[in-house]
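=== RUN LOG ===
request id: a7f3
mode: sequence -> structure
chains: 1
length: 395
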Amino acid sequence: MTDDDPLQAFLDDVHLLAPDRLSAAVASRGRQLGAEETVVYLTDYEQLLLQPVRGEGVPPRQELSVEGSVGGRAFRRVEVLSTRVDIRTRRLWMPLLNGVERLGVVEMLVRDLTPTLEARLRALVSLASELFVVNDQYTDIFAQLRRRKTLSLAAEIQWELLPPLSFGSDRVVIAGALEPAYDIGGDTFDYAVNGPTADLMVLDAVGHGLPAALLASAAVGAYRHARRNMWDLPDIAAAMNDVLAGQFTGSRFATAAIARLHLDTGQLRWVNAGHPDPLIVRDGALLRPGPCKPHPPLGLQTRKPDVCEASLHAGDRVVLYTDGIVEARSPDGEFFGDERLADFIHRASADGDPAPETLRRLMRRVLTHQADHLQDDASIVMLEWRTGDERQLQI
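=== RESULT ===
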């Protein structure tokens, strides 16, 4: 690289770049590389729309539908797509990714595209994605852009608690989702990948709205504190139980499933605190590991819970969820159910959907099952274990 290289210049510029000028900087460096137009789009909280990030030198655009546009397909499939404008010009759509978390897409109008130019433009998009993530910590601009309506205070708290909605490596993919995006109360999830282990947790705090969100935030804080001190699962659950019992009066509790997977061996261990056990989807079949002794919800326990165990096969998908998923009821009274849940996950995988897209579509299906009237908060986190000996990992 030389001092005149647009990618190096982009990196040099961003140290003192205000967040509201980031999209303009991406467009400017895109022009230097050979893209006549460059537009960054960010997805909304429900992942239904792609919103253009406006800026100086950025051509005006309208929002795009995730389901009904070429840009939306690039987002859904995590693929670079192109359409021909004329004999020499193409319009590229590149996924905007933080690791494997989908932030949005980037549209580029390019004349005389070559493999070398496409590689350089991909590098610019990769740099831009990291900068959007970093700048999001300093500004409200991007959070405001992603909102189609006002978040409730409870939902604001919950979204700030969440980890990235997806993570991927050569050994594991983790994805999560929750609804209602703008009014979530007590449902939440968390995860962490620490060397040879992957930890994940899903939680359903009693009640609705702000009281449930405060209960959930205390539980997540206790979970992370114990996990980061490398405590075993029963001790993590006990720490969460003690915080809820000590800080909240009355019948305030939370159900939870807390799991840990050893990535070298596929050994899955979990504790159950009044919550549905994990499901395992293997080659399209639903497995219910166990039997596993249930324990009272967090905040009501009088002793440490027992640990349950199962052995995974390469390619297995472990699903932790709240009852708002399987107990979603259609207008004629039919539950969504865990069999339908497992079948949907298997079919989405067979269709080639990445794990995050599987859960995005699942949440839409759960809503449709209830005639678009959500009866309860719904949260889900899914882990796919890989050993590297089978087909290429889907992200």
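=== NOTES ===
Residues 390-395 have pLDDT under 50 and may be disordered.
The two ends are 31 Å apart (CA to CA).
=== END ===
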